[in-house]
Amino acid sequence: MNQEQPALTPSSTSEAAAAPNREAAGRSSVPATSRSGSRGGLAAAVSVIALVATGVLGWYVHDMRGSVATVREEVAQRLSAGEAAATEYRALGRQQQEAIAALQGKLGALEAQVAATEGQAAALETLYQQFSRTREDRVIAETENAVAMATQQLQLAGNAEAALIALQGAEARLAAQDAGQLLPLRRALARDIEQLKAAPQVDVPGIALRLEGLLERADALPLAFAGELAEKPATEAGDGAAPAAAAPSPMDFVKRVAHEVWHEILALVRIERLDQPEPVLLAPAQSTYLRENLKIRLLTARLALLARDGRTFAADLAQAQGWVERYFDKRNTRVQEVLSELAALAATPVKVAQPAPTESIAALRMLQARAGEAGKGAPAVAVPAAPAAAPAPAPAPAPGKGGATIRQPANGAR
Q: Which InterPro entries match (predicted)?
């Protein structure tokens, strides 16, 4: 008995305790028994429902556990794959950051070279704008220089031939250009050339050659007193030669004595003309100076001819003509030729009014004005400014756990 007592369960104890209660209840009335039976059926139904619910709940929990396990496995696989991809991305990010740093260094060097190249290009553009012109502008500039040269030759030197050559060269360049807008200038040049050809010209080379011939003949001109001295001995020699040629006879002797006596009588009386001056007696040194001064006058006349100075040219020739008439023998043929040549040269005009190329100058001014208006209306050529030097590349940041962070360069690749 003592061994079986510990084996009693709480249910048996409760049943033993409930037995007196049941007996007491059995002694009670019949309606209490019927109520306890209905309560037991309700409890059984509740218990069945609870068991069914518990089974359903257990099955659901079991199913949920399987699903959770499957989700955990899938999440674990995805996490491992994401970690591998993140590791790979971090490696790629490091490589890309290193490549970007290298590219930024190269980009800085390239931008420095580009800045230097753009500076050189700007300088070349400036030089090109200063020294380079279009074909028409160059032809217009050459024509303007030719017209200016022709004007200087006409106004300063009076050289119509040089002016004509300059204008003809300009007209030939315009003809080779064959541009419609240059036709008015070409027409004006043609009219100025015709006016120059129609104007009277001075034969400067011919007059210079005539003066050169006078310079060469100045040393051979006989002086006036030398001609007088040469004439008297020739007359005396002619008078004494006739008696000597014949045979000596008493009559010849008498005639010679009579001739000498008559000559002596004539020497006692001297008849001179007061309206004509005596030839000037000059020493040999003074004769040399006279001839050199005559040459200097002829040379200055030639310089005045080249300078188109008519007043100086006429004055020098008049002075040379006066010296020749006063100091040289006018009865000599060479002196007479020199005097006639000097008179003809003095009457020759050396300065003739030449027409200026006014029409060509006006046409040039009109073309330049039109070119200036076209230049104002045309858009200006913009020279790009050199960019600033590229900044130093930023250091690559360390990638985080979730992946690599890539920082783009400030300027960006061009």
A: HemX (IPR007470)
Considering the domain architecture, whether residues 208 and 294 belong to the same structural domain is answered as yes
User: Is the distance from CB of 325 to CB of 342 less than 8 angstroms?
Assistant: no
Are 127 and 138 in a shared domain? no
Q: State yes or no: pLDDT of 276 exceeds 60.
A: no
Q: Answer for the pair 94, 404: CB distance below 8 angstroms, yes or no.
A: yes
Determine which helix (DSSP H) or strand (DSSP E) holds 75, and give its type and residue range.
helix 30-131
Are residue 327 and residue 213 in the same domain, yes or no? yes
Give Cα 133 distance to the centre of its chain. Answer: 7
CB 381 within 8 A of CB 400: no
Q: Is residue 381 part of a domain?
A: no
177 lies in the same domain as 294? no
Mean residue pLDDT of the chain comes to 75
Does the pLDDT at position 274 exceed 70?
A: no
Let me know: does 368 contact 322? Beta carbons within 8 Å.
Answer: no
Q: Strand pairing partners for 328?
A: 223
Q: 296-299 contacts: CB < 8 A, separation 24 or more? A: 297/323, 298/211, 298/214, 298/215, 298/218, 299/215
Residue by residue, DSSP assigns 337-399 as HHHHHHHHHHTS---------HHHHHHHHHHHHHHHHHHHHSPPPPPPPPPPPPPPPPPPPPP
* Residue 148, in any domain of the structure: yes
Q: pLDDT at position 237, please?
A: 44
Which residues make Cβ contacts (< 8 Å) with residue 195, sequence separation at least 6? 355
> Which residue segment(s) compose the domain that 95 sits in?
43-132
* For residue 296, pLDDT beyond 90: yes
For residues 16 and 336, what is the distance between their CA atoms, to the nearest angstrom?
197
Which range has the worst mean pLDDT, 174-183, 206-215, 285-294, 319-328? 174-183
The answer as to whether 89 is a domain residue is yes
Q: What is the largest CA-CA distance in the chain?
A: 250
**Cα–Cα distance for residue pair 164/150, rounded to 1 Å:** 7
**Distance, CA of 258 to CA of 235 (rounded, Å):** 18
Q: Which residues pair with 223 in a beta bridge?
A: 328
Contacts of 201 (CB under 8 A, 6+ apart): 160, 161, 352
Q: Tokens 């039976």 label which residue? A: 37
4: confidence class by pLDDT, cuts 50, 70, 90 = very low
**pTM of the model as a whole:** 0.43
Q: Do 61 and 151 lie in a common domain?
A: no
Structure tokens at 188: 């004006």
Average pLDDT over residues 373-400: 46
